[in-house]
Design goal:
CATH topology: Glutaredoxin
CATH class: Alpha Beta
Mean pLDDT: 83
Order of helices and strands: EEEEHHEHEHEEHE
CATH superfamily: Glutaredoxin
Number of helices: 5
Strand order of the largest sheet: 6-5-4-7-8-9
CATH architecture: 3-Layer(aba) Sandwich
Structural class: alpha/beta
Distance between the termini: 45 Å
Low-confidence stretches: 1-6, 13-21, 23-30
Length: about 190
């Protein structure tokens, strides 16, 4: 009897993408947006102290995996600070937060330090994580991700998807979903 192959962990590093020659794949290669009830692809982020944190390490808890366009821009800062301000409430409700953008680790570190962010961030400069989740780019030619969020349930499946996010009120929406247990898988627009 052979052992089953481990699921890939998406770190966002270009070298993890077969045949990409160090270049990010075009967004057209992204699969369809994950829907509620789908197993969430494992990703790796970094915590405040720089240590790695994998989504699979958080099984048994809800995890908000939120994609945002760019560090230190008005909307992204508003969303990150709102989530950060609500982090104690998320923790009390049994939830964690992982933010994902195409920015580098260095950019994430500056962003985290400037605003005192206490949750994990993942660098998706190779767009491997966004492709796995089916998150495309925002309008325009710049390589920025759409603002999309996934609430991953304690069992590792997507419990809820927000395809359109208001940066200022999103933390409250997610906290409400976590507190009600996200018993039914839903997709919100």
């Amino acid at each position: 009897m052979g052992t089953a192959a481990a699921a890939p962990v998406f770190t966002g590093a270009a070298e993890n993408i077969p045949n990409c020659r160090g270049r990010p794949p075009p967004y057209s290669l992204a699969m369809a947006l994950l829907t509620a009830g789908t197993p969430a692809p494992d990703i790796e982020a970094r915590q405040q102290d720089g240590s790695p944190l994998r989504l699979s390490d958080l099984r048994g808890r809800h995890v908000l995996v939120y994609f945002y366009p760019k560090d230190d821009t008005p909307g992204c800062t508003a969303e990150a600070c709102s989530l950060n301000d609500s982090l104690d409430d998320f923790t009390s409700a049994g939830a964690d937060v992982i933010g994902v953008s195409t920015d580098s680790w260095e950019s994430h570190t500056r962003f985290r330090n400037k605003y005192g962010l206490r949750f994990a961030l993942a660098s998706d400069s190779a767009r491997q994580i966004s492709a796995a989740y089916g998150v495309g780019r925002s309008a325009g030619v710049l390589p920025m991700l759409k603002r999309v969020s996934f609430l991953v349930g304690p069992d590792g499946t997507v419990a809820q998807v927000w395809q359109s996010v208001d940066p200022k009120s999103h933390a409250a929406e997610v906290l409400t979903a976590v507190q009600r247990g996200s018993g039914s898988a839903t997709t919100a627009s």
